[in-house]
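Worked Example 4.2. Read the sequence first, then its structure tokens.
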Amino acid sequence: MKGKEMSHHLLIFLPKKEAKMAKRESKFQRDLVKELKAEYPGSYVFKINGKQGYPDLIFLYEDKWATLECKKSAKAKHRPNQDEHVERMNNMSFSSFIYPENKQEVLHELSIFMGKHQSNVYPWKPRDIRSEHIFQVVEQDA
């Protein structure tokens, strides 16, 4: 077609189950961003797009920053390099995987890191993200 520009669109069809899960993760992420902005007035939350494996969100508040990788559930698979990037950024500042099952714990740790709350419960730097995959809570005989 001479003289006319053509637009090209790529359509990707996901199986119903995958599409539903992606929708659930994006809603979780949207709700999380709203919650962060409400809890930390004047903060910035940016979605990181582009490079594979980088956390989904970067959160800036006063003189601190954090990154969060949103997952639809604790059982959701990690993409290549995600563990490495989250671990490296956690060593620089604060970074964590966050999903509905650990949301309150991560937000509590984030509030301590950002200086909003003091705690004797978590007196150390936020947990090593690798520990989620290594340790389990077990009952001990009394």
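Now turn to a second chain, presented in exactly the same format:
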Amino acid sequence: MTHEQQETYITLKQLMKRLKEPVIAYEQRQLSQLFTDVFPYLRKIGRVIVTDDVAEIMKEEPLRAVVIFRKIKGMIKAEAEFHYGNAYFSTNEAHQPKLPNNVEILRDRKKEKQILDLFTTYRYQKIDTGFEKKLPIKDNLYYFFKVEVEEFRRYAEVRMGKKLRQLFLDGEEFQPTIEVDQEGSWLDIKFDVTGINDNEIDQVLNSLLRKDRFYTLDNGEVLSFDSEAFQQTSEMIGQLRERISANDGLIRLPKSQGIMLEQRLKDNPQAQFSESFTAMVQDLTHPEDYQVALPENLNATLRPYQESGFRWLKIAERLWLWRNFS
């Protein structure tokens, strides 16, 4: 026998010596615990035989765990349900199953304990309906959605009440939109997020500039920046940090940054370009296609490179780029 087997055998032998008869009786409601907690140790030292009448009572189904979070009066209320087939057990004392007298569920208590231990890890208090803790705010609210809830999802299906779910604005759903237009000597970049008030857009932009993971709106909701669209936007405005001036979600850039801006945003599905901006970039990148008439009083034949230079000057004059060359 191994050392572990010897310890198990000695413990069992000492226990049996304390009994008048070498028999330990279990009630039917204790059978699940007997099968899951005691039998594994007994099987280490010998063969466990279960009679047919006991086997018929035990019902074995895979565990499907469900954790439900709700926001109620400034608190997060949580309830765990452990489903086995059509029966389930709940941390809510009012939601206990009614099983036939001749059926006992073989519960996976190890997995159940893993879930229940998470409530202790994240500092919930035990109550009659399950668990509760004060609703977190700002950084802690983001942590709740992105870390805590995801940890529960490793072991259980997570369901969330509408009031609590609405506090988290997923960046995949609330994606930024970028509209680029050209007005006079400036490029106008309009930044917007569906569902976010205009008076908070500048704060959202500043938060992106700081490379924050999220922004907390005035109403307490958390806007996550984890989506690819927000990451691309953050990178773009970060590269323009020294050149931009933003007001009410409008970023203004000199037209000289047009090609660079088009390169930054061309693969961004949320970016929209006006016809005038697209035409401007086309002229800058393909000056050979820019239609311009030579001066009527020109008494010379221009060479190709001279014609190209003349087109460039006309484009620069049209786009006011001479200001950036002076």
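Notes for the reader: The chain is about 40% helix and 25% strand. The two ends are 92 Å apart (CA to CA).
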